[in-house]
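DM between two lab members

TW: hey, do you still have the ARM repeat-containing protein entry open?
JB: yeah, one sec
JB: this one, 678 aa:
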Amino acid sequence: MISTQQHRQYIQQLQSPNPVEVYSALRTIKNTIIGSSIKKTLYFQLQIIPSVTSLLALDDTDVQIRVQATAIISSLAHKGEGAAKQLLDSGVLTPLINQIAPGSDPVLMEISERALNALLAYTSTKMGAEEHTGTMIPYLLSIVTEGKSIVSVYDMHSHARVELAVLILGKLCVTEPRQYTIADMGAISLLVPLLCQVYPRLQVATLRTLSALSYENSEICTALTNTGHNGKPFATILLDLARSHDPEIRLTACLCLSNLSRMRVTSAPLKEVQTVVVPALVKLMACENLDKIQVIRALGYLCHEEDEMQKAARDAGAIVDLIKLLADIESEQDGDFVDIEHNTKLTKAILLSLGTIVSTDDECRRKAVDCSILRHLVLAMGSKDSEIRAAACLCARYITRSASICRTHLPECGILKPILNLLSDRSEEVQVTASATLVNLMLNLSPVRMEALKEGVVDMLVKLLQSENVMIRRNALWSVRNTVTELDDDNMLKEILDKIKVERLYELAIGQDEPMTQEQAACIFRNIVNEGQSGINILFDTLGSERMISLIQQLLTAGDDKFILHGLYLFNNVAVRSPEHCDLIARCEILMQAVIGFLSSSSPELIIGAVWCISGVASHRVDGAGDNALPKYIDELNLHNVQSRLESLAADPRVSFEVHDRVKSCLDNFTTTSSAPS
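TW: and the structure you got?
JB:
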């Protein structure tokens, strides 16, 4: 066994003026560290990086010495991101790029390409290579250009060089500007023909690079769909490869098709992507030779915000298979030789993809619940890993979007207490997702809402409102909004508002720095007054008439439709449910003018909201006039020619059916059973 002192001597030997000694030391070091993480760590500690880098930086360094030194760089880069980052920071990238320049020694070029490929395998090193991309990209594309003339499948060495160059190009596509740089230099026309080669490794490398090049980039996706090879459109080539017997080719082809589908530019019919790509990804989850995490993430990405893809995933058995994988991981937890880090990443990927698949469709959610997903989510919420806890909450949020599931499964699954516990989790990300899930649990249809109130959820929400994270504050307000909706208990409503503080809600509703929290606070006011006289009294008694009218006015003049709608329905609910307070707003010229102005809006929603407000005011009749009573506020309404404006809307063929129907109902308030007395 070689002692540490001997290893130190090898490092010192690298400074020798004798090339033979330097070569011998390098070769010994290379053979020592390959495959040995411990020895790599030792040589890092012995400061090998500066010595090796300095050898490569010298112009007159012998080629054989360069080959050995570069092999050491390549081996050290495989140790992990920290090691690769140290190598990058040492300035090793410049000599490596110079060594792949045309005219370099073939062996040195190849080993340098392998070193670059290993070095750029990590996010930090990919990003850190920015200043070198201007040199590196043309070199790499020149290698691909030379490889276009390769026709023989037996020319493995040439194929391998092109494969490496293509892989490195893909690793450089980590930012949108780099994607455009590589595409603008002609990469698309060079890469697409490589897909039709019969060398599988090169096909996989090309598909990976095209996937990286087109990721979240609609312009490049469009450019790809407009190209092809030998008369075959790009999407057709991909669909053929997605049917390949080679699992890795299938996967990488599916990744490219996912990009095109997500950017909605694929020339392949959506049905083909559903029937080919989705089932392929589901089947690939069972392939032992592939990275399951990558497959599952790809499935989640393809299904994100795509209803039809989610249904296709359900029909292909994705939900069943993913939940079975979760169960398998859980059963392995106490076993020997379990790769905990891998299982943690896999669990997170499964939970996020499941969340995506069940995010929009009730059938998907029911399928997941039938497969006992809630039990797995409760278990995952107790994980030591914060990312798993957050992913479990996110998945639970999507599951609890279903009213039927909330009514029938929530009480028995025990999800409430874990969610309440996670509201004070040490991870802010977990607090965000847990508070977002709580929003659904506090709906009036949720059977656990009263249980949550008994568990002190209002006090927890008060604490969340003091969070520095705007998303947590937004979610807390949203939960308050749901809590006060259809509460049917005036004393409880007052108790909740005493804790939350109406004054705080008012400040949030009129504040314009955070639109997300402002909207939720405004909606809370709208929902409180919707509960009837009691809620209206609490608000007016706490804030006073002047501030309540000011709040409505600010919402109506906010310039944002969603805030205006809250203002309109706040106005309407007060007008309908409280004759006393209706008098205050109906005789406020500024409010009436603002409301009636929305009858001319281009938005059907705003017109309908304004008509509801007019109906609310017009529904109050002059006292003591019996069936012939005119609207109590007829003078205020006539001042703005409301009746004639409504009649014009009713006769306008351009307005929607919903607007027309609401206007006709409102006009009924302006008629009496007989003519009014003159």
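TW: got it. Strands lie at 228-229, 232-233. Residues 340-357 form the longest helix (18 residues).
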